[in-house]
Amino acid sequence: MPNRLAHETSPYLLQHADNPVDWWPWSTDAFEEARRRGVPVLLSVGYSSCHWCHVMAHESFEDPQLAALLNEHFVAVKVDREERPDVDAVYMEAVQAATGQGGWPMTVFLTPDAEPFYFGTYFPPAPRHGMPSFGQVLEGVRSAWADRRDEVGEVAGRIVADLSGRSLAESLAEGDQRPPRPEDLAGALLGLTRAFDAVHGGFGDAPKFPPAMVLEFLLRHHARTGSVGALEMVEATCAAMARGGIYDQLGGGFARYSVDREWVVPHFEKMLYDNALLCRVYAHLWRATGSDLARRIALETADFMVRELRTDQGGFASALDADSDDGTGRHAEGAYYAWTPEQLRAALGDRDAEFAALYFGVTEEGTFEEGASVLQLPDSGGLVDAARVASVKERLLAARAERPRPGRDDKIVASWNGLAIAALAETGAYFDRPDLVQAATDAADLLIRVHMDWKARLHRTSRDGTPGTNSGVLDDYANVAEGLLALSSVTGEGVWVEFAGFLLDTVLVQFTAPDGTLYDTAADAERLIRRPQDPTDNATPSGWTAAAGALLSYAALSGSSLHRDAAERALGVVTALGGRAPRFIGWGLAAAEAALDGPREVAVVGPPDDPATRALHRAALLGTAPGTVVALGAPGEDDAVEVPLLMARPLVDGRPAAYVCRRFACEQPTTDPEELAERLGS
Fold first, then answer.
1. How far apart are CA 49 and CA 323, in angstroms?
2. 633 phi/psi in degrees, rounded to 5
3. What is the Cα gyration radius of the chain?
4. Can you tell me the mean pLDDT for 583-602?
5. β-bridge pairing 270-271 and 75-80
6. If you average pLDDT over residues 170-190, what whole number do you get?
7. C-alpha to C-alpha distance for 348 and 330, rounded to whole angstroms
8. For 352, which DSSP code?
9. Treating both helix axes as pointing N-terminal to C-terminal, what angle do 292-304 and 414-430 enclose, rounded to 10 degrees?
10. Is the pLDDT of residue 172 over 90?
11. What strands lie across the sheet with 41-46, from one edge to the other?
12. How far apart, in Å, are the Cα atoms of 279 and each of 238, 244, 286, 301, 422?
């Protein structure tokens, strides 16, 4: 019989709806039940495309004996971390503080007052590598709760008191809150240079994650300063990732991370946020250098998102699983993507299979498991028959399509769709792909219609056109605003700027402390054991740094000193962290580059169908000056203008014109696209 999760909308929770465990969703009712029964709470946090979450579910949560033990002595609560990043953040902080590491599935035991007292991540079904079995953990916690309840309560109280102490953000707020200066960003560049892997690209050692936000900073730093080293790090990293196994050489799109430092073997889950961020980085790299490789990867990644992740409602699904059926009924990681020489021969015939094996680096020994290889692009010396490659890829894609597909988590997350809107709008504009701009517009429409209410409050998730019950967190407001501002720059539709302004006003009211620091949850959100507040980037820009960037762009379009001041206060954290931990605040560093440069504000005025207007608009969009904002409008009555930057900007001698400004102080307008490009560093 299905448990309570059968009534949820999260694909992750629904995966556990038929477990023999009597799961509860996160709710006050669950903790009331624990209080009534006098038992502790097991909190299990994961997400739909998490490989080890699936493993623990099959090994433990589907085991009737373990389920019976769990049901008798605990109240079991299951949380989708992508729906409730606030719950995940609070308890992950406790796990990391107690164990020195974290990950998913996250396993935490709580008192009925939601206070944590024992932590872990994945637990195996039998003792292994020094880890206790999940059954042993349950018995140990049950015994401690029954025999040493006072001691457990004291431990939980100390943990909560420690978590409720000074946060990183509060400590930083007492220091230097000024926005970064050029020397601060130069120091961040030095730190990144020291951590750079000059052989394989990227930063640090294995596992290696795509550093999209750091790459965006480096591109902007190069644009502002001309730093050759900054651009070289971007080019080397982007080339290595694009040629490695982390990139799907057949279908496009990036996997979550590489388990090795060479980018060969990925963790195969494909996340919307990674692909949105990387699509934008490769598009910006093309804008800076004209690289054919960057152009190809940007377009293929955009096409992957539209083809594989777009939902019937026009939004973008969260992820594709790492696992799929390997053809024997067994779920295996990477089964959909890896190839053996025999599989190549079956799909292509002997002659083309030999060519494909050389081209994609498929060997008899394999680079993955059981003699299979992850497709890569080893250096071919440039001697490649493009037509033959295209034919081989087409046939391999057709053969792969016959395999069981990975599952798709089809919930819409507002924040990640905001990232996708920005990437698709800009990629579509750069490469004359109106279909991509339309896909961005459709996703923006969905967010406004389904996720946003009349008070400019966001639902974090939706599924099948129905909003979830979870309130948006800071990164939802910030990244959706970022996406809408980028979409307005491309389409010239000022209404997107207005909607972004509504969301950013909510950021100022609900998420901003009097000292200018930012919280991840709204002031009126559900109270947890502490209010999360983390300025560092993780897999996506932190809400804090994303808000700083969006506030800065909105201020540049609207002339609002209120939003500009809020952005500069928020950037104080970059001053504090940029030199010490630049890999973990890349988006903040990128926003700081924009603030140092202005950012440039470009108002393009002219009839929308006039080729001269379109030429000026394209030159503005292709400008590399950090964080440039673009407003496009036809000449008309100022009181009808939706974007203040366009007000009092007439044609020049009856011709379309572009005005380049900083803080609304403008240079002489130009009617020449080449001159505009030169002013913007194209």
1. 8
2. -160, 155
3. 26
4. 97
5. unpaired
6. 81
7. 26
8. H
9. 140
10. no
11. 24-25, 75-80, 41-46, 106-110, 116-120
12. 11, 16, 11, 6, 10
